[in-house]
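seq/struct pair 1
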Amino acid sequence: MNMIVKKVVKKKQGLGGLRGSSGGSSVESSPLRPQLIEKPPPCTHGCPNHNMIREALMAVSKAEEFGKTLEAGLEEAWRRFLETTPLPAVCGRVCPHPCETECNRKEKDGAVSVNNFERFIGDFGLRKKLVPAKLTEARRSEKIAVVGSGPAGLSCAYHLARRGYPVTIFESFPKSGGMLRYGIPDYRLPPEVLDAEIQRILDMGVELKCNTAVGRDIPLETLRKDYKAVFVGLGAHQGKKLRVPGEDAPNVFAGTDFLHRINCDEKLDLGNKVVVIGGGDTAIDAARVSRRLGAETIILYRRTRAEMPAIHEEIEGAIEDGVRIDFLAAPIEVYTKDGRATGMKCQRMKLGEPDSSGRASPVPIEGDTYDLEFTTLIAAVSQQPDFTGFDALREGKDWIKTDAKFKTKEDGVYSGGDNVQLALVVHAIFHGRTAAAAIHEAITGEVPSAGAAPSGEPIRADKLKLSHYDEAKRSGVKKLPPAEALLSLKTEIASTLSEAEAVSDAKRCLSCGLCFHCGSCWSLCQDNAVIKPLVKGQPYKFKMEFCNGCKKCAENCPCGYIEMH
């Protein structure tokens, strides 16, 4: 949509005039002329998967103005998300929405509720049984194997299927979904939502083989021989130990193992008091599940709340559930009696200098300890993949290493997700998407042209005219009150936005860096140099021979799309 000015034509005297009046402009001519220059929006820049957030929001907010039905706008928004992610209904529930942290609207009256909007659009797509668009109807002959059906593997399979590749997913567990199914409680991510989005991928021609552990049941080398390329997305299902005496008791669980058992409907007797060690999402999930199982629950975290890596809303939710958090404390010994853990000695901590994570490092306060009793202990300090059968992809004790396209050191083998980097679901989706594009490029030589990170610096609030936009309240989801939420492990605690709420929040999008047809440039130009499109939604244009470079169009462009050069 960019218009590059090839030639500056000097304005002829007497042409144009103040709109609605006679007489020419009195502004002295300038050599500068307007250019339409699209800038990356900060939401897409801040999204690890670079979802087309601005475009999805504007598809809904401008649907009626551009002569479309609202349903057509909602479907267009869904297709914008499906260009980069196959799991909008899932991510709309579990993503900590770094896009909203970047949103310029927060400088006015609060960020656009992107995460809740994505959830609404994802649910809309499921309800309407929308089918993703393929990039080709041709069926390729090159078979691709995907190891693991977590978000990285599902993303890779989806983007390869869109390109016509026959894909087979190998999953070691009885059901697909990886950490999405076995590591996130049902009250946050209902299994029926996950199942529906996975089925949509399978319906594109992807084959799924569960109860098949590559590395044990099938050697990786066999896949390398039978398939043109292999993508490895193992997931980090193994919890790390505390490395303190007494932690091997049967009532001491790793966080990932505890959530896996719960999500498999295993009945666990936790007793009346649970202590959870850790400050990440697994720790928070384990604590909130324990409350739903009727136990008094305490989280022990060695730093302060400011350093907790868990999703802010989930921390708030845990506190509302009645979970107590002991900050600046760490276990140093687990007490046992008759073979079971009964309590532990805790060390008081203080914050020291930043460590490799950039957070302040916890330092023990010498001689300051206390005892804490419990009936069950859950250690959710970290997790790691099971690399059995994948040693060829590792370097020493390091996890799997890849290049920027997620290719490993082994020819034809790519990898992504938690076995490369413990991160968010949306990071894993990006890994799988990037690897799929790299696999296609390696086979065909075609360099992907879409879906890459936006080039250039994102446009910030200081380049916008925020006063142009009306104040508008951010839409928020409704949540079950804690007393009701604690009654069930299955009932979803947060609701999806209504259609009216989703549309209302879409209309709050500032369209940072791209024209949204407000008409300011046309209405303020005194020289008739701005051409309003006859078809709504088409770009505005300039008659450069009428323009004298007064800058009014650029200075009053709310979204920062017009520049003077």
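seq/struct pair 2
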Amino acid sequence: MDWQHHYADKVVAAPEAVSKIMRGSRVFIGTGCGEPQHLIRAMVADEQLQDIMVYQMLSSTLSQFVDDESFRRRFSLKLFFISQSMRKAAFDGKIDYIPAYLSQIPRMFASHRIGLDAALVQVSPPDKFGYCSLGVSVDITRSAVENSPVVIAQVNPRMPRTWGDSFVHVDDIDWLVPCEEPLVEALPRIKDNEVSRRIGLFVSQLVDDGATLQIGFGNLPYAILKYLDGKEDLGIHTQLITDGLLPLFEKKVITNKKKTLLPGRVVTSLCMGSEKIYKFVDNNPIFYFRSSEFVNDPTVIARNDNLVSISSALEVDLTGQVCSDSMGYLFYSGIGDQVDFLRGSSMSKGGFSIIALPSTAQNGAVSRIVPHLSEGAGVATTRGDVNFVITEYGIAELKGKGIYQRVMELAQIAHPKFREELIEVAKKRHYIFADQLPPTTEDLLFLEGYKYTLKLKDGKVVEFRPLLPSDEFAYRNFFYSLQEKTIYMRYFYKMRTFSHEVVQKQWSSVDYHKNMSILGLVQKGGHKEIMAIGSYAQESKERAEVAFVVREDFQNKGIASYLLEILIKIAIENHYTSFCATVLRENSAMISVFKKIFPHARILPGGGSDLKIEMDFSETTLDDDKQPS
């Protein structure tokens, strides 16, 4: 169909189209890579246009003009999100930033809280039924089209036709401006590095097969996607589609089969990237583009079971407050989709959120885990909304935890050189105990090699990992869950209290080399609880003393034997050649565990009712096939 001939009464050149905009108008411009570049240039070139108020999210083309004083006399820019190209202009006060949740912006247009007089958008050529597609920019653009008295559309054959709620009929467009040109491209400017690799490693530990993902704006979320390529049957419900997802589509990691809302479909509202991703979404029925009012609605998001939200931040304070849109008083980006998806994921069955950020900024000069947010920094996400925070130094779990635990969780994932300072500030503010010991300043990434999983005969899964300072409350709860007899067998007396001082002594002695403690954890509801602990402590240069305690409902299931195998492996790496243990004579179960793995163990009389067992690693029944992996 020759659409230009068919709709000849609406087809005009760009200068004529923008001349329909009245002086003093409020003009919406399409988002990001979907913005109509040709129309924007024509609008700027029209000297008759004066006192124009421009509304846009993720502006690109206008950044070419914003430093021109004559441009700023004619146009006022109001942006819902500050793109990288607009950041300096924001710092210089040349644009105005509107903080708003993406899910609510369409309603602001519909209710005329933000009134619009005209909308400049970009669409694909109309089909034989007269429908054009908004292509890669449905987001808040659809509502702007529906609520603007004048709609001017640049018709670009390079704009993909996307499925979903992206179609606009020619009858709803006032002027059609034919212009073929490449779409704006947006690719990360920073390359993948060791920090993003390590963060990606931790993120991948939390994301299970079959999860539905939301990926936030920014370079870091983009970079860590590649570390999810070992997953299966992931789904996508997200505001933004980027090139970072392409390898996951190509490897069939993303199948959308396990989604509970619109299974088989990627739900999104915006696409930004290269020509490659634009061609991929073009006429591809797997993609279901909808308005931000739908995609970002927390109640809609929550209809996805196992929804994992992954977004980034500029800084996080020790209580869990997150700043993502400003650096002090300088506006840097925007609220965007973060809060919408954090709240939606918290309502999702099995869902949760992740805030991922490097531990430092300014080439390591400043910490992003901070005692308090910078003066002027905005709290985009409250401390009540945060679940997991990840840096290249580990995972902090904050949901349901008090300030004391949050401080310890966040301090141990801060950069090592800032940890002692963070603890000292927290003490002064009475967030933590005055005698609290700081986390080690060692980089503990090697502890990732000491994580194991054991599936029991009853189907339950036990996870094993090293003890951390932030485990104090969980460790305490574990102790008080034990029966008196179990405590006596472990400690040789009827220990009745497990105070902060006792716990401090326990974990402060763990240096993860000479001394080690490994926890066994099981899932209970939305969290993991300790059900076993095994430790070794240096007795001499070549020998360590080993001990275990397993909660009664998990005894006789092979837990102690598995813990012993883990500790042997770690002890050998740390140059020990043998273990010893002190065991009560009546503790036949523990004696059997040792004799099973060390048939030639030497059992010697102790100081009374106890025995001393000596075990040489050269005499173990374990080989490489039997050691935990």
